[in-house]
Design goal:
Length: 604
């Protein structure tokens, strides 16, 4: 035991051989305060995490996998059916009309969802017209004067009202002679509705074997000269023609449109035309003469009008068309963005109830019209019930001429510009490239002045989606340290002041590697962006996002004080302060003793 005690670094001095002093007590208190303060400062330093930023060469080019781009974008004046998301890069990649992992939601003019675009229905089918026009076996020719002179107008089998007669060249009802070719029969009538007096004309071996009707012949048949306003031509016996004329007259009397009737509307008569047809559906084809797809639609549209009188709902439908080149302002007011655009108008309102995006075939048109007609009937019934309820409620004060807003049921359409919200993920190569939202459709034509590329970016991020809690921590670190953001375009609205401009965003991507104890090692992609609007003369206006990658990567890591370092510093503080203040105590004690001896005269 004696040997062990001799090896003692911490030998004790008996308390009886020590004594306290006032200076020592003061210095002890002062040393304790300093010691505690330094301890907590050192503890704070130990618990503080320092962020260290380094710059290295970007290792990601060695990764040959594609980089995901997650985005949410809203274009308030782009119809989803007209939208195309295209991707290209400097390696020659060209992908157009990307739909994988992309959801497009149709929006009304207030930003409310209308429905989700079905890509399978986005490709339009155009009905092919016959390559060769059917040869009509006979014609009937009307002449201005009694001697078969003056203007003349020839008509093939079909039905013709006053407007169609004039369109063919029969002016002002001034008919005084007619020639009916062999095999043909005709019925002329007084009024454009195929009623009034009527006369049956033929070339079937009767009195007029050659089919030539002079003014006297016409009067003898019951016609009144210079008063012909409608005509029915039939290839066959005159009795068949008379039967056909009767059916046409009955159809017109019941409100069924004329066979093949497509009314031409323009800025001067559009509103009045729709307003005076409150009980009907007005289906309008907005077209441009130069438009290839409009030319394909025209014979289909006409064929639909030819067959419309055979439909059960025909009396409630009117077909029309508008030339947007000649009526540009009218088409802009009705939000026409592409050609051809087909819209339906109901209840006499000059705002469309719905825009048609289906196939351009006769069967598809009739299926759509039938569906819309059911809606029209339901709305008319509901509106009538509202009127009846008001009549009972108001009693004698009820005004039958007061305007009642039509009840709208199950309508997908709206009264303003249709927009589109796009959400999804694009896969791009890790090389400079771009992706852009184009106004494009394989089966429609466009005009730059009708396109507006205004857009709102909900979010745009590069790389794999980071969990929200982790992203919150990274954003907090990034906010302290500064530098590019992870989602620099989030919530930004880009308004195109001109309808024929492209908005382009130039994005510089900076790969960033975070090495954190709380999240581990994770690679994200921050970016800076510069946006500019310019006139695009090579393609249709669009929203374009051009990106390139920085060759350098940023490494953000945490640095902490090791535990052994903290313990060493604490020991150093305690030992150092004890030693220093022990020295101070010794110096003070020696000084005080010297002064005491000096006062007693004991110093030599």
């Amino acid at each position: 035991m004696g040997g062990i005690k001799s090896f003692d670094f911490f030998r004790k001095v008996p308390k009886d051989f020590t004594e306290g002093s006032t200076p020592g007590s003061i210095l002890s208190v002062f040393a304790t305060v300093i010691m505690v303060t330094l301890f907590f400062l050192e503890l704070k330093s130990y618990m503080t995490v320092k962020i260290i930023t380094d710059i290295i060469m970007d290792p990601s080019p060695m990764d040959r996998s594609d980089l995901p781009v997650t985005f949410s974008l809203t274009m308030p004046e782009l119809v989803c059916q007209f939208a195309s998301i295209d991707v290209s890069d400097m390696m020659g990649t060209e992908r157009q009309g990307v739909t994988k992992d992309i959801t497009m939601t149709q929006l009304d003019d207030k930003g409310n969802p209308i429905g989700v675009l079905d890509y399978n229905e986005n490709d339009l089918v155009y009905e092919k017209a016959d390559a060769e026009k059917e040869e009509h076996p006979c014609t009937v020719t009307l002449y201005e004067h009694a001697d078969f002179t003056g203007w003349k107008a020839s008509f093939e089998p079909g039905e013709y009202d006053h407007a169609k007669l004039e369109k063919k060249g029969a002016m002002n009802d001034d008919v005084e002679s007619i020639v009916v070719e062999k095999g043909c029969s005709a019925v002329i009538a007084q009024n454009g509705e195929h009623d009034g007096w009527q006369a049956v004309l033929q070339d079937d071996g009767g009195e007029n074997k050659d089919g030539r009707y002079t003014s006297k012949d016409l009067e003898a048949a019951g016609a009144v000269l210079n008063d012909v306003s409608s005509l029915v031509v039939h290839h066959g016996h005159h009795e068949e023609a008379n039967t056909k004329h009767t059916k046409v007259k009955e159809a017109r009397a019941s409100g069924i449109p004329q066979r093949g009737q497509v009314d031409t509307l323009e800025w001067s008569n559009f509103d009045e035309y729709v307003k005076h047809r409150k009980d009907k559906m007005v289906v309008v084809d907005f077209y441009a003469p130069w438009c290839h797809w409009c030319k394909l639609l025209d014979p289909v549209w006409q064929a639909t009008a030819e067959k419309l009188p055979d439909q059960s709902y025909a009396k409630d439908v009117r077909m029309a068309k508008v030339d947007c080149e000649a009526n540009g302002q009218l088409c802009q007011e009705h939000n026409i963005r592409a050609y051809p655009t087909i819209q339906i108008y109901m209840h006499g309102q000059n705002k469309p109830s719905e825009t048609y995006y289906g196939d351009r075939t006769t069967d598809a048109f009739f299926q759509w019209m039938e569906h819309e007609h059911k809606i029209l009937e339901a709305e008319q019934l509901a509106t009538k019930q509202v009127v009846e309820a008001k009549k009972i409620e108001q009693g004698p004060d009820f005004d039958p001429n007061a305007h009642v807003e039509p009840v709208r049921l199950h309508q997908k359409g709206h009264h303003g510009v249709e927009g589109c919200s796009m959400d999804g993920v694009l896969m791009v190569k890790r090389v400079p490239g771009n992706f852009h939202i184009n106004f494009a459709h394989d089966n429609m034509d466009y005009k730059n002045s009708l396109i507006n590329a205004t857009h709102l970016v909900g979010h745009l991020t590069f790389g794999n989606v980071v969990p929200a809690p982790v992203m919150t921590k990274l954003e907090a670190i990034n906010a302290r340290e500064g530098g590019p953001g992870f989602n620099a375009l989030r919530g930004q609205n880009f308004v195109s002041e001109h309808a024929d401009r492209t908005y382009e965003h130039f994005i510089q991507i900076v790969p960033t590697i975070y090495k954190m104890r709380s999240v581990g090692e994770i690679t994200v992609y921050r970016y800076t962006v510069t946006s500019a609007e310019h006139e695009d003369t090579e393609r249709y206006p669009s929203a374009k996002f051009t990106f390139q990658f920085s060759p350098m990567a940023v490494v953000v890591s945490e640095e902490t004080v090791p535990l052994y370092h903290f313990l060493t510093e604490v020991c150093a503080i305690i030992g150092g302060l004890f030693t220093v203040f022990s020295m101070f105590t010794g110096i003070i004690d020696s000084t005080m003793k010297s002064l005491q001896k000096n006062n007693l005269g004991k110093l030599g």
